[in-house]
Backbone:
């Protein structure tokens, strides 16, 4: 078989020209496009990795900040609860103190009212008793209450102990001050003479006795010699009457309290 070298060479040349044309106008643009796309994909993958890393870092930072905020929230809530509890304790303590103060004031007020009432009752009883006694003595014995009081006081002076008589006599003679007789009522001249004679006889002194009226004395008389005194009044009787009245009021208070204690509690529901 004969080879046509011209045809073969022509085909070879044609092939080389075709290959050069393909490379020049087709293969190179495709390769360039593929390289560009590969670079673009690589860039996008790199960018996606960077974005993912940034997202992970942001997520971590957000979680850390969220944990810190949660810790701060718990701390603030605990602190607020503690402050609220402390404030509640302070308010309760202030309320207890205020209650105790009001209770003490109320008790003092009730005690003062009770004391004033007792004094008023004793004063009224004193006035009524002396008014009745004075009327009875004037109507039955034709004597006044003041005369009876002077008589009793004179008897009280005559019963003075010898040691007291000697001591008071020495005080009067040493000081030179005259004895003083005080009374809640104004003494008549006859009553003054009787008292003057009794003091002179009992204490064996010759001195001008001074007579004074003292409204603070409780229905009685008092002999004073240089700071020492002998007195007679109804204070002891009034004190005993006051103690009896106080005991009666206290018993009534206890009975009232027992009655209230025995009452069944009311249903508050």
Residues:
């Amino acid at each position: 078989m004969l080879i046509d070298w011209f045809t073969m060479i022509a085909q070879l040349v044609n092939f080389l020209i075709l290959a050069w044309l393909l490379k020049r106008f087709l293969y190179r643009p495709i390769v360039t496009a593929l390289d560009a796309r590969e670079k673009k994909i690589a860039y996008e993958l790199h960018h996606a990795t960077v974005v993912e890393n940034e997202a992970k870092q942001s997520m971590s930072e957000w979680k850390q900040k969220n944990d810190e905020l949660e810790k701060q929230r718990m701390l603030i809530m605990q602190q607020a609860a503690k402050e609220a509890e402390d404030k509640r304790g302070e308010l309760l303590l202030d309320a207890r103190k205020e209650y105790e103060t009001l209770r003490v004031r109320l008790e003092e007020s009730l005690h003062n009212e009770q004391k004033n009432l007792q004094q008023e009752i004793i004063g009224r009883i004193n006035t009524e008793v002396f008014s009745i006694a004075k009327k009875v003595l004037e109507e039955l014995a034709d004597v006044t209450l003041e005369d009876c009081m002077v008589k009793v006081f004179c008897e009280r002076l005559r019963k003075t102990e010898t040691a007291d008589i000697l001591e008071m006599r020495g005080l009067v003679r040493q000081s030179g001050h005259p004895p003083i007789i005080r009374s809640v009522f104004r003494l008549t001249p006859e009553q003054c003479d009787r008292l003057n004679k009794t003091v002179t006889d009992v204490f064996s002194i010759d001195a001008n006795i001074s007579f004074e009226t003292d409204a603070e004395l409780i229905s009685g008389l008092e002999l004073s010699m240089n700071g020492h005194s002998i007195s007679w009044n109804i204070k002891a009787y009034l004190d005993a009457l006051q103690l009896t009245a106080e005991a009666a009021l206290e018993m009534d208070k206890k009975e009232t309290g027992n009655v209230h204690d025995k009452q069944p509690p009311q249903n508050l529901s």
Notes: Residues 58-141 form one domain. The mean pLDDT is 79. The first strand starts at residue 180 and ends at 183. The two ends are 130 Å apart (CA to CA).
